Amino acid sequence: MSNLPFKKKETMSNWKISMILFAAIIALAAAVMLLPGLGRAGNLEPPAGAVDVYGNPIPTMNTLGEIHNKLDAIYKAITKRPYEVTLDEKFLALRRDGTLGEQEGKQCGERFCDMGDGTVADCTTGLRWTKNGYMFGSLRWNEAMQVASWLCPEYCTSFPDLIHPLTDDSQPGDWRLPTADELKELCDGLMETYNITSFPERMTIGPFENVWGWGGPYWTSTPTSCPEWYWPPDDYGMWGPPPDGWPEGNVWPPECATFVVIAGCGEDTYDKVLEYGVWFVRDGL
């Protein structure tokens, strides 16, 4: 009885092998029968100069390669973004909501392109930034993250005095805080492109306005450990009660995030409860 399962398994395996061999023989026989017919079919293209009953030229057949190339050209045409098209040129393409419609070219011939809707495209990194580099002033880190999740043209209407409010097609959730690397890349690009040598408190850099220059740190989305000198734990690695004078409502133990200073493009770490500048970014152009 102990050998019975093994015998059944062996029998099943042989049956599977037989079926595979049978299928292979059928496929081979079909190929042998069909290939001569394909060979006799000859060229399926209509003869040169052939016309239909109305005298119109009969179109020739496209090869698979030609069909692929035409479909690829159509795809590239309808997925163009405004920054890829000559300034003010009209073109038909897919909008961000998936519908097809007329759009206007925004290509400015430079790395940073003003899109005319409160945003600036970075054609090197493929990111879109708010044209206003200090849109809502200084915020705590958690506040900045919340505002980023709300940001869209409709949200901007709540602030009638806002400089360069959004008029793009963004929706809540499209915008976010940049990572430390993204903000440093933007900063380095601005310094290199526009040869910035002085940093007033508020700056216009290329198409960007209201940038917090001298002494102005910007929050990033990159969390990090607080520096050792900043309210360190006790000798046992434990956090005690908040020190005297610790602001009521502030998180304890403290939480820190990375910030970037535009003057010098350097980064550092500090407590999330501090109010720093916020420069919003979204993916895709």
Structure notes:
It is a single chain. The protein contains five helices and 14 strands. The longest helix is centred in the N-terminal third of the chain and has 38 residues, at 4-41. The N and C termini lie far apart (70 Å). Helix content is 29%, strand content 21%. The strands form five sheets. It has a five-stranded antiparallel β-sheet. Among the domains are: 64-104, no CATH class; 129-283, no CATH class. With 285 residues, the protein is of the alpha+beta class.
In short:
Helix content is 29%, strand content 21%. It is α+β, with helices and mostly antiparallel strands and 285 residues long.
What is the helix content?
25-40%
What string gives the helices and strands in order? HHEEEEEEHHEHEEEEEEE
The counted number of beta strands is 14
The strand order across the widest sheet is: 3-4-5-14-7
Q: Any low-confidence stretches, pLDDT <50, length ≥5? A: 1-13
Instruction: Count helical runs.
Output: 5
Kindly estimate the percentage of residues that lie in beta strands according to DSSP: 15-25%
Q: First CA to last CA: what distance?
A: 70 Å
Question: Could you report the average pLDDT, rounded to the nearest whole number?
Answer: 77
User: Over all CA atoms, what is the radius of gyration?
Assistant: 32 Å
Main β-sheet: number of strands, strand sense, barrel status?
5 strands, antiparallel
Structural class: alpha+beta
User: Can you tell me the overall shape?
Assistant: elongated
